[in-house]
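FW: tagging you since you asked about this chain on Friday. Here's the raw sequence from the shared folder, copied in full. Didn't touch anything.
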Amino acid sequence: MRIALKEVPVLSSHHADIPKNRWSWRLLYNFLLYVSPVALLTVAFPFVTPILSKNYVGSVPLIQIILAASIVVPWLSQAVCMPIYRALESEHLKVEDARREVQEEAAILKRDHKSKEAQELLATLDTDPKYQHISELRAFSRHWGYLYLVGLPIAFLFAIPVVLVLHWDMVALVSFLFLSMLNVAYAQLLIVPNVAKKTVRCGSSHGWATRLFC
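HL: got it, structure written out here
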């Protein structure tokens, strides 16, 4: 895997600069933040289950459709999110490659005693948009529409076991597919804050691909 160095101001907050007790509270806060959706669902589910079980979509209880859509979320999310991570990495590496080419050309000009031309070429790194580092949101917006549509057939594949095993009617199956499509969009939209948070936490001293796993 290629690892590129980003020439951007350091955004990370170093752990060594944070008091131990404050860092412990931050870890606890992050943990509670991560488990809060599961905790809230666990608390709320017993109360809403009797109500949901009374409602049917076609001939299938609504609660069964919700549970089926929830069960496939981990596998579905992994399948539809990985292409977006790769697309974001590609956008950043494309900028890094372009900047590196300019720097190499400038180095050649300096060796040929053409310092003025080299300085003018290096100045384009700060003025030409194609050499500017882009935000995660901008990189995401360039690819999301297409990759979302490409990921939808994966959701349809998960519907095959439902058809073969559960024998749901068409109305219930369409509802399951609709919930799966919403789960795909939700999982992909979480990528931007997730990557942005890791970028701030890991800082610019690591390559973009490395920060994905920081």
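FW: Confidence is low (pLDDT under 50) at residues 1-16, 203-214.
HL: agreed, and The first helix runs from residue 20 to 53.
FW: great, closing this out.
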